[in-house]
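Lecture 7 notes: from sequence to structure.

We start with a single chain of 348 residues. Read the sequence below before looking at the structure.
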Amino acid sequence: MSRAMRDQPRLAAHGSQSRGTRGAGNLPLPPALGPAKMPGMDSERLRRSLEQLNRGPLPAAPKASTVRPPAAAASVAAPTTSAATDDAARVRSGSLAKLVKPLPGLVRRGEAVATELGEHWRVCVPVDEIWPDGERLVTARHARLAHAAELCRSGGIDAFAEADLQEFLAAFPDDALLLDLETCGLAGSALFLAGVLRPVEGRLMVELLLARDYAEEPAVLASLWQRVTERTVLVTFNGKSFDWPMVQDRTARHLLFRGRLAPQPRHVDLLHPARRRWRRALPDCRLQTLESRICGRRRGDDIPGSQIPAAYQQYVRTGFTREMDQVLMHNALDLVTLLDLAMRLAGP
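Now the structure, written as tokens:
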């Protein structure tokens, strides 16, 4: 008897010692083997011979299981570089930008502030309330950038940031002031809101200096100049063309310095480095385009800038605060985005 004939019943009987004799009972063949073929014997004669040895009919051999290939590795693998690139592209397109909900009742949260030129309204909002966890993110990024800048200086390596942004890094947070204005129109019109971002009692705060009517503009300017003179670096977006000339013009109109020279801080205008870095990747470099496509935030229920002068006139005339709440939120978001962009532009 050939080896194949010997092995087949032995394999069939394996594990059946309860019948008393090896090979007794109707035992299935191993699925992977099935009936073996013998030289010179057709499959029917071979089967009859095996049934005699097995003392009974052989069960049908189960069909071999079909081994399916594992799911594509890409479905469980970590995101690839191309996936990360796709995410970055979606952020750049604005499709992943997170919605920022407005804060209600901002005007009512304020308080009157007395200056030598009269009173104005002041609303103070923590950065974290506008940009959740923003202060921690900014502080951590600033620490990394400041450390990297120090390594560059000590190693004689060219700085990775432009000179203006290096000065901002060195001054932030205690010696830097971020500024954004809201006015009643173009150059020559009244300034009614000066928004600044600075540390207050150890926390990054958005401070909104509001003139409740046109007569409070000098008081707003007085408070603004007090904050400017306490710092050496001023940060704006398009401020060299609009915000800072507006401050100087309204200051001269109200004779705030009366022949004395007004302080001139180091002015960092983020519009120009933003254009140099992102103009090829974005349709434009407006602040809200950068906010949605670079910073990943988009505004909910925002008031368009073109409607702000009319909203202020309505507030002065009626005292209704709903639209002024929107104006204050608009300005606060401008400042938070200004801070976010400054930290991004200050890095490589």
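The first strand starts at residue 98 and ends at 100. Keep this in mind for problem set 3.
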